[in-house]
Write a sequence for this structure.
């Protein structure tokens, strides 16, 4: 190796160490037990309940995020107004909050003794220890992922397209629905996939705000924690499913973003 | 250039893989914290042990890991090596002892199960109220000692009443902290915890004593972990729980002397 060879070798070493460190735990989940044992452990009714609940609650959360978050991100991406930077920062804050802080915050805001606790009770809405509470916790922690991705997706849509649509007589709502959203679709979908992945992995805020009860609030991550002490194989099997789903979501995101870049 | 990088990378990756294989066979243990004595202890011991940690002289720092006893036992089974394991029952240390993972356990404290309610609440006045419609309850999950003791209490109520109570359970928490927290926030009406947990909330919760016929025998077991990095300090820690400042801190926190002594 020549004198110039040490730096590429160092880079290679850094990459090898990084790769080994980040993939080893994921690989271990799949090879610690045989595939047969993993599949058998998934037959447990608790595991199936947890997966079903995770699927339902994350789908609902992502649906709400798509319906409310997408237009909100559109406004942020297309309008300049005083305090816009502050609003964007506030919306991104949950990204960097520890889940336990999210859990405490949700209890302090929406718990029975929280800021809006009385108002919620008067309207008969129950969140704490209910499936609805899980969905609320998931929305809180995962919405910022979509808001960010959607803003940049809308920002990348040529202003001239919107102007052309308006010139041709379409109202802003029609332009949004027929021109802007289709143009930004890959980026929006990528944002939703990321939000879905984050929601699927949510643990701390859910446990603190919604509790853990099989079939009602015990999502797959909570079931993994509950099983860890007594049913390690079951916990491994559920983990393997989550890894597979998260991997699929990430891959989808990558493909969509590549698609969007190719179009742009 | 590109080719040389690729070869270099492959060599490095192979070396890394070999190192990884070499170490994976020897069930590497986590001693943690270098010089610190590491104590894995049941959540319900948080107050008493934290107090003891301020005065305990083991020749170095003491670090505590508080969690559900079952979680801590599972960690030890997976190769984590604290110095001391203190559980809210005797079953888990006994099982680890049989597996050769910890030394012979000793019983160092007793406790009482109580029905805890938010201080100002009158919705639940006794065990009989737990079966009423609209009452919400949190209990420990079946694998953590508080949950197992709770199920003993419920079994003594008889099948029909136990079912009615279980129908009101809204959360199965991984340790007592989860139950206490949800009670303090008013998220539930009642929960089964140890009397020491209620004492530790400084008046936020009120304890309702259980009838003697329902009270399970709650015994805390402690053992020095096999191959503990600080075995001498670990033995001193266990000794002080039985007779010294540790025993005094436990009594001050409301723990009872070991049952049957």
């Amino acid at each position: 190796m020549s004198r110039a060879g040490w730096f590429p070798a160092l880079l290679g070493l850094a990459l090898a160490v990084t790769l080994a460190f980040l993939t080893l735990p994921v690989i271990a989940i799949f090879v610690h037990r045989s595939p047969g044992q993993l599949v058998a452990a998934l037959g447990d009714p608790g595991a199936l309940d947890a997966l079903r609940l995770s699927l339902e609650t994350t789908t609902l959360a992502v649906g709400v995020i798509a319906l409310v978050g997408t237009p909100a991100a559109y406004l942020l991406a297309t309008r300049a107004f005083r305090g816009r930077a502050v609003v964007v920062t506030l919306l991104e804050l949950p990204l960097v909050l520890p889940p336990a802080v999210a859990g405490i915050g949700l209890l302090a805001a929406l718990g029975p003794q929280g800021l809006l606790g009385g108002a919620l009770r008067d309207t008969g809405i129950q969140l704490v220890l209910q499936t609805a509470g899980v969905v609320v916790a998931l929305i809180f922690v995962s919405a910022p992922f979509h808001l960010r991705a959607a803003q940049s997706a809308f920002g990348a849509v040529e202003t001239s397209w919107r102007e052309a649509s308006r010139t041709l007589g379409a109202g802003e709502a029609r332009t949004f629905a027929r021109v802007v959203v289709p143009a930004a679709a890959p980026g929006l979908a990528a944002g939703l996939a990321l939000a879905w992945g984050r929601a699927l992995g949510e643990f701390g805020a859910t446990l603190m705000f919604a509790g853990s009860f099989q079939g009602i609030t015990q999502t797959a991550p909570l079931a993994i924690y509950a099983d860890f002490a007594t049913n390690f194989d079951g916990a491994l099997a559920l983990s393997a499913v989550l890894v597979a789903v998260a991997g699929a979501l990430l891959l989808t995101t990558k493909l969509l973003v590549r698609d969007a870049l190719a179009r742009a | 250039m590109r080719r040389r990088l690729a070869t270099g990378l492959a060599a490095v990756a192979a070396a890394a893989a070999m190192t990884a294989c070499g170490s994976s066979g020897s069930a590497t243990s986590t001693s943690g914290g270098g010089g610190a004595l590491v104590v894995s202890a049941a959540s319900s011991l948080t107050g008493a042990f934290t107090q003891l940690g301020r005065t305990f002289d083991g020749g170095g720092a003491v670090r505590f890991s508080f969690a559900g006893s079952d979680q801590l036992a599972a960690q030890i089974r997976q190769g984590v090596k604290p110095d001391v394991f203190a559980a809210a029952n005797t079953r888990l240390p006994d099982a680890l002892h049989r597996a050769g993972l910890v030394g012979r356990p000793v019983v160092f404290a007793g406790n009482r199960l109580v029905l805890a309610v938010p201080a100002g609440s009158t919705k639940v006045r006794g065990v009989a109220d737990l079966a009423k419609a609209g009452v919400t309850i949190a209990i420990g999950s079946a694998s953590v000692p508080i949950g197992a003791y709770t199920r003993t209490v419920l079994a003594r109520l008889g099948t029909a009443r136990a079912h009615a109570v279980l129908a009101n359970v809204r959360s199965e928490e991984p340790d007592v902290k989860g139950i206490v927290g949800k009670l303090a926030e008013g998220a539930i009406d009642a929960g089964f915890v140890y009397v020491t947990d209620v004492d530790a909330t400084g008046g936020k919760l009120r304890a309702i004593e259980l009838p003697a016929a329902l009270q399970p025998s709650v015994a805390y077991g402690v053992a020095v972990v096999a191959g503990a990095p600080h075995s001498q300090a670990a033995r001193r820690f266990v000794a002080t729980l039985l007779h010294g400042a540790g025993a005094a801190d436990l009594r001050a926190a409301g723990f009872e002397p070991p049952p049957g002594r």
User: Anything to note?
Assistant: The radius of gyration of chain B is 22 Å. Residues 1-33 of chain B have pLDDT under 50 and may be disordered.
